[in-house]
């Protein structure tokens, strides 16, 4: 992990993306440069579905109920849209008291 962090921080664009929501290019770069140093495994699609699979297939949701660990909230852009979708599907474990928190939106 320390090697990944060093690699990311050494990139020219590191400062430009530090406060942006999309860190996927940085993650991919670090992974590709260090893949030979770590064991990589594919995650089960049933246990770790993508947003494209989960949110667009009601039959699949019913067939795999109780088997999911984490649902990736991708295939949608924007924090508010992602939060709304998680709430609509009953997947948000965070209540609506973010404004009462001294931290605000996390």
UniProtKB/TrEMBL annotation:
Per the database record, which ranges form the Nucleotide-diphospho-sugar transferase domain? 7-86
Q: Which Pfam families match?
A: Nucleotid_trans
Q: Which InterPro entries match?
A: Nucl-diP-sugar_transferase (IPR005069), UDP-D-xylose:L-fucose_XylT (IPR052636)
Q: Which domain of life is it from?
A: Eukaryota
Spell out the protein name for this chain: UDP-D-xylose:L-fucose alpha-1,3-D-xylosyltransferase 1-like
């Amino acid at each position: 992990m320390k090697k990944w962090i060093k690699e990311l921080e050494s990139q020219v664009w590191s400062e430009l993306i530090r406060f942006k929501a999309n860190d996927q290019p940085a993650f991919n770069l670090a992974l590709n440069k260090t893949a030979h140093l770590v064991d990589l495994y594919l995650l089960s699609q049933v246990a770790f579905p993508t947003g494209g699979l989960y949110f667009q297939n009601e039959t699949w949701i019913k067939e795999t109920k109780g088997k999911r660990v984490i649902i990736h909230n991708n295939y949608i852009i924007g924090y508010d849209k992602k939060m709304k979708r998680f709430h609509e599907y009953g997947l948000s474990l965070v209540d609506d008291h973010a404004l009462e928190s001294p931290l605000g939106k996390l």
